[in-house]
From TrEMBL:
The protein's name: Aldo/keto reductase
A cellular-component GO term for this protein: cytosol
InterPro entries: AKR, AKR_Detox_Biosynth, NAD(P)_OxRdtase_dom_sf, NADP_OxRdtase_dom
PANTHER family: NADH-SPECIFIC METHYLGLYOXAL REDUCTASE-RELATED, OXIDOREDUCTASE YDHF
Domain NADP-dependent oxidoreductase: 10-274
Taxonomy of the source species: Bacteria, Pseudomonadati, Pseudomonadota, Alphaproteobacteria, Sphingomonadales
Record-level Gene Ontology MF annotations: oxidoreductase activity
Length: 283
C-alpha cells in the first residue's frame, strides 16, 4: 500500500523544471508516457533561477494547459524552507505557505504536503497540530517529511493525530546512508512510503569512472538497459518499496527511466553493486 492510489512506483521531480531545456509540456507528456503519475515539487524549487515558487507556478501552468490531467496524478509539494532563514515550520508560516502553493499550482487540494527540512525552533507538538489542521481543512490529503532523521520523526509521531505517511530522504548508490541510519527500517516498521530524492546521485553516477561505473556498466549490459535504469532499480529493489524521484528534465531520459521496471535482481548482483558503491567488501 502507498499513501495515495495514484502514486506511481517512480516519481517525477521538478526541482530543475525552471532550467533551460525542452518545453515544459514535453516533459510532462514524457512523464505520463513513462507511467509516472507522482509529481513532486516544492515551493523553494526554482528560486536560484527564476524566483521563489517558480517551479510550482510553472507546474500549475502545465496543469492548466492539460485539462483533466490533475485528476490522474498524485500531486506532492513541500514547504518549510525560507531563503535567508533558512527553516521555518511555525504554524503561521506553514499555513501561509500552503495557501501560496495552492495558488501557484492552481489546485484546490494537494495530495501530499511534506515538511522539507527540520526546523529545530518549532516544537514537534506544534508541527503535528499544524499538519492536522492542513488535513482537516480538506486542502491536503496526506502529510509527510523530507530529510528527517528517525529520531526526529519519532518525536513528531508522538504528538501526531494525523498519520505521517511518507518520508523523503536522499538515497542512492552515491548516498546509501539510509540503509544504515535507520531511515528505511523505521519506514518499514511504521508502514511509511519512502520517496527517494536524488536517486542518481545528482547525475554523478552517470559520470563516475571507478569500480562502481564498471559494475553499473556490466549490469546494464546484462539487463539491456542504461546505467540510470540500473541505479534507479537498485533503489526500488529494497523491501521498503522505495519510490525514486527522477529529476531529469530531458524527455528522452525521462522515458528511459521507465526501463528500471525491467531490471531483475539477484541478491549477489544487488550486494555486488552496494560493495562497489561503498568501496569495500561487506563483512
Amino acid at each position: 500500500m502507498t499513501f495515495h492510489p495514484l502514486a506511481s512506483d517512480i516519481g517525477w521531480g521538478s526541482w530543475r523544471l525552471c532550467e533551460d531545456g525542452s518545453h515544459p509540456l514535453e516533459r510532462i507528456d514524457a512523464a505520463i508516457e513513462a507511467g509516472f503519475t507522482l509529481f513532486d515539487t516544492a515551493d523553494i524549487y526554482g528560486t536560484d533561477s527564476a524566483g521563489f515558487g517558480a517551479a510550482e507556478a510553472l507546474l500549475g501552468e502545465m496543469l492548466r494547459d492539460r485539462p483533466g490531467l490533475r485528476d490522474h496524478i498524485c500531486l506532492a509539494t513541500k514547504g518549510g524552507i525560507r531563503p535567508g532563514i533558512p527553516y521555518d515550520s511555525s504554524r503561521s508560516h506553514l499555513l501561509e505557505a500552503l495557501e501560496a502553493s495552492l495558488r501557484r499550482l492552481r489546485v484546490e487540494r494537494i495530495d501530499l504536503y511534506q515538511i522539507h527540512r527540520r526546523d529545530w525552533l518549532t516544537r514537534p507538538d506544534e508541527l503535528a497540530a499544524t499538519l492536522g489542521m492542513m488535513v482537516d481543512s480538506g486542502k491536503v490529503g496526506a502529510v509527510g517529511v523530507s530529510n528527517y532523521a528517525p529520531s526526529e520523526l519519532a518525536a513528531l509521531r508522538a504528538f501526531a493525530r494525523t498519520p505521517i505517511l511518507t518520508t523523503q530522504p536522499e538515497f542512492s548508490l552515491w548516498h546509501p546512508q539510509p540503509l544504515h541510519d535507520g531511515t528505511l527500517d523505521d519506514a518499514m516498521t511504521q508502514g511509511m512510503t519512502v520517496l527517494a530524492w536524488s536517486p542518481l546521485g545528482g547525475g554523478r553516477l552517470a559520470g563516475c569512472t571507478d569500480r562502481l561505473a564498471e559494475t553499473l556498466g556490466a549490469l546494464a549490459g546484462q539487463q539491456g538497459v542504461d546505467v540510470a535504469a540500473i541505479a534507479l532499480s537498485w533503489v526500488m529493489a529494497h523491501p521498503a518499496g522505495v519510490i525514486p524521484i527522477v529529476g531529469s528534465q530531458s524527455p528522452e531520459r525521462i522515458r528511459r527511466a521507465a526501463d528500471a521496471r525491467k531490471v531483475r535482481w539477484t541478491r549477489e548482483d544487488w550486494y555486488r553493486l552496494l560493495e562497489a558503491a561503498i568501496g569495500r567488501r561487506l563483512p
